[in-house]
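Intended use. Records like the one below are meant for learning the mapping from a protein sequence to its folded structure. Do not use them to infer anything beyond what is encoded.
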Amino acid sequence: MAIGYSSFDTPTSNVVPTWTGGRFAAEFSNTAVFTCGPDETCADGVYRQTVKGEFLVNGSPLTHVLCGPVVLSPTDYEEDGCPPAGDNCDFCTAYGYRQCAMTNDRYTNPDQATGSDFSMEDAPGFNAPLNPLNNYTINLSFEGMLFDIGAGNVLATQTWTVVGSSLSTPTLAATQGEDLVPAQATAEEIGLASTDKLFRVEHTRNRLTGALELHLVIQRAVGSAPLSSKALSVALFDADKEPMIAALGEPSGVYEIGSRSGVTTNVVYKLPPTAPVATWAAVTAVTADGEANRKVRIEELPVIQR
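Structure written out for the chain above:
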């Protein structure tokens, strides 16, 4: 008997993000029941999830890393997280892989490997600390799919969205993209963990003001302490690696995006209106895995144009 399904329940329209436990996020859960023959297992029935869209703060478009070099795209669906490497689930963050039993992603009835029942939960959004005067915007589209991987067939596809802003009527200051900095960690020693990755440096423009911005994009572990802006400094260079701006000042904001696919921190700097576009950036970062392990590391990265 071929794999089938008797139910597949997801959101059917838009899930509006709300303020919950210090986050601005949207919670949703999906369930499915696969069917198979009485003498067979449902091991070939699996769930997969893809996503596209964007996150913005006061008009600044932020980058969210889904897996390795793959980032959230405004236009193209990408798998929502990292698949396992074979049976190695150490870095798996994607949904529906039977070899990887997760706390918010599971198969049951009777077990993870063969069970007919699937359930998952997700809550994409902005992590604390947040400033209620900022306008946090989430605009995501999801696809959830049931597969018979043995036959290579798609059994069903459901779509839904997570769309909303934290300010239903944005203040004039937020609309103009002024410096409404979220509350930062008070302890300056809260820097990068040794496991944090400086993913890339980007030039982009604010959607509301058109102002040039520089963003540091950092991959971090779930549950990391809020990153202090004082732990980072940036110098910009041209194509010949001649200095353009010796060092940028304090960032206008440090914003953390969290979801099952991982945590991404964007450190946003507003540049002077006459600033040329840089080619290289030297990022100096304090690593703070406890006082005994404090050290400074410097990384030279190309500046990506968005």
